[in-house]
Each structure stands twice: as structure tokens, then as C-alpha cells.
């Protein structure tokens, strides 16, 4: 069976959940090989967790020399691994960075690329959701090594020991891959809540909050949810851009999405329409968001959410 | 000192189906680009805006060229960029291009940038509003062997040194590079201007070149649907969603109903 390369998405060695999801998908296509590009002191822990989620092999690439540069060195690394391993496919996270790596790798290896896959089956045949979720598209790569950028929540991580064999790999990085430099980096403060794109439940607030996110955050915490925001809330400076859901923010696909004081503009829908269950609270019964919902409350979020939060806390208590 | 701050800026603008219209697929599973009204991708307006601001900061000899690959109608997108203030337009149109994937699109764009010549900056939007892959800028950088500085929300420059701020997935970063480079900007970079009446009149006199693949020396067999390295096998409209249950809150009934619904779905 051929290898399937999975680029490990991690923060300082801590492997993020979408990687485990990709390992589960990779198993359907061949033998999952994880590619860990990171600090060598962090590698042992990463290898252990990757093994636990099914990695047969883990390529460890020490990033001391390439850490400070944008995507190009990672694309070069993967190119060299593709040449060595002739994998059946390469999977990367469909984040801004992941897609850029995929794009450059596609050109380097003369291969077709598919972004924003929400599922990958044997073939590999991918599923994408396009035009703000109005169409479902199945595609195939017809040339080269399929390079597929996979969205978070595309699969359920599967525990089950892989061999987890560690293989150290030293790529040759060209000078031209080092021309865009990360001059400064300010890690985002941990909110203590789940990561927006990975969360099973997302609770969002819009202009209807009037800038007061307390009811949104309280409700989110009662459900163990991540907090999101519409662009109107972000543009007003109420929430950082990292919380924006929509076409120019994060695209989320949780089990449950709760939109509060959000009208449901097409650009917002583009970021949440594929959520499994959609709930909205809005004062205006004509708000377009109600066209999407499984359940809607016409009402003031400042009445509905605190009371619901109290009730949920009581039930859970 | 002035002369070396002149810049040659190429801004890539895409012509896309109107997102508020009825976007659909053709029988060959390509995006219907003829049956719906199109326009300059809103996200590329930000790229035009940043290009114009750079030009205003530099001196008069800086040129902004709007580059678009698209069908006949796509001339509208080029015109809009000229009305906003770009100096020149290049429209690459060729029947063979229809159905191209990212690889072919980036190839044709790269060839056009090379033909325009001596670009210091290639400016793109953060994503096209139809395909939305956010990959073309990175691919252009790869093809042109230029540094990529992408997803900028704040753009600063001093001569040919560029610094951008970007909101990454896990961190806010400052990226630095020296032109020539490929830059992409987000919708956080600053409102795009509307064409003024003067701008609209002036645009009528601005030069627009129309190039075909042969003008670019790109072989028609390398682009288009048949040459695509990916293939859409199936495109299905999402089944219409069943109307959900909607309740009106009266003295707390809304919260109770909401909690009841969440419990019935096992979210609590
Ligand atoms: C190129 C482009 C990209 C964009 N990208 C995005 C994006 O990524 N994400 C995004 O969200 N938007 C995006 N937008 C903006 C989008 O078009 C809308 O303007 C935006 O989503 C509106 O946000 P909103 O729903 O919070 O505000 P509004 O549309 O103003 O809606 C507020 C809602 O709150 C309700 N409300 C008010 N008070 C209360 C209350 N007390 N209780 C309950 N309900 C109340 C109102 O009835 C109303 O329906 C983009 C736009 C463009 C042009
Ligand atoms: N056909 C095209 N013509 C001109 N520019 C394009 C075209 N396609 C993509 N671009 C540029 O590449 C950016 C990203 O596009 P995409 O990778 O499709 O999301 C856009 O915002 C444009 O600046």
C-alpha cells in the first residue's frame, strides 16, 4: 500500500485536532505517514500522539532553519518527501497557510490540487461545498499526486495505534524560499474556549449585541462552545477578527451553530451554512437567517440567552 | 532618490458571478459565467485600493495596471478598476481558457505579468468570491519565483521594503520582504473607494490591451477544462432545507423552547 502524507498542523508541538481527522481520512487511501515540521525537542511528544491516532510513519523535520519564513520552505520540504515516498496523496489542513503550501506544492510537483474538502473517499474522490453551501461538488485529481486541503471537522479522529516509526528527514531549502520573513509574531491569547474551526458547538453574536458579548459568552460557556462573531461585530471593534465567521473570516462546520443578533447576510452564511444544526435568536421575524434554521426564536437576545443559560446550567448542575 | 521609488504595480482582478444572484453550474460542471451578471470581485477592490494608495504615496511615475483573465464580459472588471484610478488595463481573453483550474489560471496570470514586464508588485485579493481558494497568489509567487506576502491587513512600505501585518490562525504576525513581490490584501486593509464621476470619465480614455493565449506564448492545450489537473465529477444543488420550527418569545417561553430543542438534540 502507498503512503499518504499528512502535514501535521501544530502549535509549538501541540498537535491540533484536524491532523487527527486527516490521519483517519488517510487510512482510507493508504498508509498514513505524518510529516512533522517543528522543533526537534517537541518531536517525541508529537510522534507519540500521532502514533496514537494511526500514523504508521512520522517524518520529523527540524524547523530550526526554516521557522522564520512563510510557507515556501514547507512546500519545498513536502516536494522532496513526495519525490522520495511517491505517496498516493498529500493531505494538509485547509487553513490559509495550508492552502498556500498546497498551492505551491502543486506547481512544484505538477499535480492537481483540491482545496476546502469536507470529505475524502477512496479514489481519492473529494467532496466540497461551494457557493455558500448551495452546491455539493465531487472532484478528482487527474494529474500527478493528489494534493488535498481538508477542512477541519471533515472526519472523526480514530484512535488506534499505528506503528509510529520515526524517520528524521533533512530537506534542502533554497535561498529563494527564504525571501518572505516573519519579522514578529504575537501568539493569540488562549481564551480557554474551544478553537473556533474545531469546535462541536459555535455560538455567535452580531450587531444585535450592541457590543455586549456577555450573554453570548455566558451561553457559549454553558454549552462548552466556541464564540464567533459577524463582520459587523468585528468591524465595530467588539471582537477581534480571528473570531469572524464568514466568507472573509473562518468557515465553520460544527454540529450546532447558534446565531444571535445576526441577520444572515450571504457572506455570513458562507461561513456557517454547512453546520449540521442551525439555531438563531433574532428580534426580527423577517431576518433571512430564519430561512436556514432548524430552530429559531423570535425575541430579544438579552432576554432569551441569559434565561436559557441559567436553565442549562441548572440542568447540568 | 525619487526615481527608485517608482513602481510598476500589477493588480490582479477577477470577474465573478454576482454572489447575490443565482450562481450555478453548467452541464459540463464548470461555473456558469455567462448566465449570471458578473462584476469585479468585491475582495479585489481592496487590492485595487491598496495599489492606488501605494501609487499616491510614491510619485507620479508609478503605474498601476489592472490585469484580468476572463470572458468578454470581464472587460467590466478591468473598467471598474480603471474608474477607481488604475492607469492601464490588460484583459486576457481566449475561448481556450474556459474551465481552467488554479494551475492554469496562475500560469496565464504569470505569463501576463511577465509580458507586462518589470513588475515590482503583484497585488491580489485575499480570495476570489466564486472559487475562493486563496491559492492563486501563492501559486503566482511560486511561478514567478517571488516572495509571497499574503493576507495583509495593514500594508506599510518604505521604498521597496514592505512590512505587512496579518492575522494568522494562531498568531498575529508581521511579515517583511523586499519588492519585487506578490502581495495579497484582506478586507481589513481599508475600505475601497468608489469611482468618482471624474474617474468614470477618465477611464474612457485609459488604454486597455486585450491579449489572447498566443500573445502570451501559452499553448492552448495547457489550459482550459480538458487540460485541468482536477476534474469535477458531480455538482449537486443542495436539497432545499425543510423549514425549521420558529417560536416567538413571550415572557420567557423562547428560552424554555430553545433549551427544550437543544436537549431533544442531545446538545445538553
Ligand atoms: C466582501 C465582503 C465580505 C464579507 N465577509 C463577511 C464575513 O466573513 N462574515 C460576516 O458575518 N459578514 C461579512 N460581510 C458583511 C455582511 O454582508 C453583513 O454586513 C454582516 O454579516 C452583517 O452582520 P450582522 O448580521 O451582525 O448585522 P446586521 O445585518 O445589522 O444584523 C443585525 C441583526 O440583529 C438583530 N437584532 C438587533 N438587536 C437584537 C436583539 N437585542 N436581540 C436579537 N436580535 C437583535 C436585527 O434584527 C438584525 O437582524 C462581508 C461583506 C462583504 C461586502
Ligand atoms: N481570473 C483571474 N484574473 C485575475 N486575477 C485573478 C483571477 N483569478 C484569481 N485572481 C487573483 O487571485 C486572487 C485569489 O484568487 P483565488 O485563489 O481564486 O481565491 C484574487 O483575489 C485575484 O486577485
TrEMBL record, chain A:
<dbReference type="Pfam" id="PF01012">
    <property type="entry name" value="ETF"/>
</dbReference>
<dbReference type="InterPro" id="IPR014731">
    <property type="entry name" value="ETF_asu_C"/>
</dbReference>
<feature type="domain" description="Electron transfer flavoprotein alpha/beta-subunit N-terminal">
    <location>
        <begin position="4"/>
        <end position="186"/>
    </location>
</feature>
<dbReference type="GO" id="GO:0009055">
    <property type="term" value="F:electron transfer activity"/>
</dbReference>
<feature type="region of interest" description="Disordered">
    <location>
        <begin position="151"/>
        <end position="196"/>
    </location>
</feature>
<keyword id="KW-0813">Transport</keyword>
<dbReference type="InterPro" id="IPR033947">
    <property type="entry name" value="ETF_alpha_N"/>
</dbReference>
<dbReference type="InterPro" id="IPR014730">
    <property type="entry name" value="ETF_a/b_N"/>
</dbReference>
<keyword id="KW-0249">Electron transport</keyword>
<dbReference type="GO" id="GO:0033539">
    <property type="term" value="P:fatty acid beta-oxidation using acyl-CoA dehydrogenase"/>
</dbReference>
<feature type="binding site">
    <location>
        <begin position="230"/>
        <end position="231"/>
    </location>
    <ligand>
        <name>FAD</name>
    </ligand>
</feature>
<dbReference type="InterPro" id="IPR001308">
    <property type="entry name" value="ETF_a/FixB"/>
</dbReference>
<feature type="binding site">
    <location>
        <position position="282"/>
    </location>
    <ligand>
        <name>FAD</name>
    </ligand>
</feature>
<feature type="binding site">
    <location>
        <begin position="261"/>
        <end position="268"/>
    </location>
    <ligand>
        <name>FAD</name>
    </ligand>
</feature>
<comment type="similarity">
    <text>Belongs to the ETF alpha-subunit/FixB family.</text>
</comment>
<feature type="binding site">
    <location>
        <position position="207"/>
    </location>
    <ligand>
        <name>FAD</name>
    </ligand>
</feature>
<keyword id="KW-0285">Flavoprotein</keyword>
<comment type="function">
    <text>The electron transfer flavoprotein serves as a specific electron acceptor for other dehydrogenases. It transfers the electrons to the main respiratory chain via ETF-ubiquinone oxidoreductase (ETF dehydrogenase).</text>
</comment>
<protein>
    <submittedName>
        <fullName>Electron transfer flavoprotein subunit alpha</fullName>
    </submittedName>
</protein>
<dbReference type="InterPro" id="IPR018206">
    <property type="entry name" value="ETF_asu_C_CS"/>
</dbReference>
<comment type="subunit">
    <text>Heterodimer of an alpha and a beta subunit.</text>
</comment>
<dbReference type="Pfam" id="PF00766">
    <property type="entry name" value="ETF_alpha"/>
</dbReference>
TrEMBL record, chain B:
<dbReference type="InterPro" id="IPR014729">
    <property type="entry name" value="Rossmann-like_a/b/a_fold"/>
</dbReference>
<dbReference type="GO" id="GO:0009055">
    <property type="term" value="F:electron transfer activity"/>
</dbReference>
<dbReference type="InterPro" id="IPR033948">
    <property type="entry name" value="ETF_beta_N"/>
</dbReference>
<comment type="function">
    <text>The electron transfer flavoprotein serves as a specific electron acceptor for other dehydrogenases. It transfers the electrons to the main respiratory chain via ETF-ubiquinone oxidoreductase (ETF dehydrogenase).</text>
</comment>
<dbReference type="InterPro" id="IPR014730">
    <property type="entry name" value="ETF_a/b_N"/>
</dbReference>
<comment type="similarity">
    <text>Belongs to the ETF beta-subunit/FixA family.</text>
</comment>
<dbReference type="GO" id="GO:0005829">
    <property type="term" value="C:cytosol"/>
</dbReference>
<comment type="subunit">
    <text>Heterodimer of an alpha and a beta subunit.</text>
</comment>
<protein>
    <recommendedName>
        <fullName>Electron transfer flavoprotein subunit beta</fullName>
    </recommendedName>
</protein>
<keyword id="KW-0813">Transport</keyword>
<keyword id="KW-0249">Electron transport</keyword>
<feature type="domain" description="Electron transfer flavoprotein alpha/beta-subunit N-terminal">
    <location>
        <begin position="28"/>
        <end position="220"/>
    </location>
</feature>
<dbReference type="Pfam" id="PF01012">
    <property type="entry name" value="ETF"/>
</dbReference>
<dbReference type="InterPro" id="IPR012255">
    <property type="entry name" value="ETF_b"/>
</dbReference>
